[in-house]
Amino acid sequence: MEKTAVIDFENVGFRYGMGSEILKNLTLTVDRGSFQFLTGPSGAGKTTLMRLMILALRPSAGSLRIFGRSAQSITRAEIPQIRRRIGIVFQDFRLLDHLTIFDNVSLPLRILGLPVEDYKQDVVDLLDWVGLGDRLDSYPAVLSGGEQQRVAIARAVITKPELLLADEPTGNVDPKHAERLMRLFIELNRLGTTIMLATHDHYLMDQFDMPKLYLENGMIESY
Fold it and tell me: What is the 3-state secondary structure (H, E, C) of 151-200?
């Protein structure tokens, strides 16, 4: 079966304002169903690359296609619809402090208009999997950083997205939970989710036989 691209960068450049280029003439294809690690030194542009993928930023040069559509042709009104197909885990978690852990994780399903009885058990089971089954009614403020990170991951994957972008998703968790989260990502990938996971953790990457992309000086290469 011929592979199709979920994300396609062609000669993309990006700079903030009048600053120097963070990405330079970058060409990258993310095939549907792939699982890739993204690594590189701090400040290399990994988070910027992912923000381009969710249309939070637009290229300064070159072309970007998302789910087969040119980013240039996607209107602001269409962006929420595109993002519903993407699970996102960023380093600041972005949990809603006034919602319980259960409600934070189930929020994407509520936005889709699903009744709670259709997804309640799925949310409970997923929180059990990430080790937070006993914290359903807790609020983010009482959780540790690692626990908040696991909540953010559960929220990102609860809809079984077509594309999962995870920026240092195991950065604040212990090795036991990191391995468990990786097993969750691998199972999602097996079910069809395309995954790009940004990390500095070379030990973690060495445990799994996934393609690795290295970003430095605005350019990317495989190794």
Answer: HHHHHHHCCCCCEEEEECCCCCCCHHHHHHHHHHHHHHHHCCCEEEEECC
The H or E element containing residue 8 is strand 5-15
Can you read off the two tokens belonging to residue 9? 């960068």
d(Cα 101, Cα 144) in Å, to the nearest integer? 13
pLDDT digits (tens, 9 = 90+) for 124-138: 999 999 999 999 999
- Environment class of residue 91 by beta-carbon count within 10 Å: exposed (0-12), middle (13-18) or buried (19+)? middle
Exposure of 148 by Cβ count < 10 A (0-12 exposed, 13-18 middle, 19+ buried)? buried
Q: Characterize the bridge pairing of strands 61-66 and 5-15.
A: antiparallel
| Side chain identity at residue 157, one-letter code | V
pTM of the model: 0.91
pLDDT tens-digit series, residues 16-38: 988 889 999 999 999 999 999 99
CA dist., res. 3 & res. 114, Å (int): 32
Rounded to whole angstroms, the Cα distance separating 11 from 1 reads 27
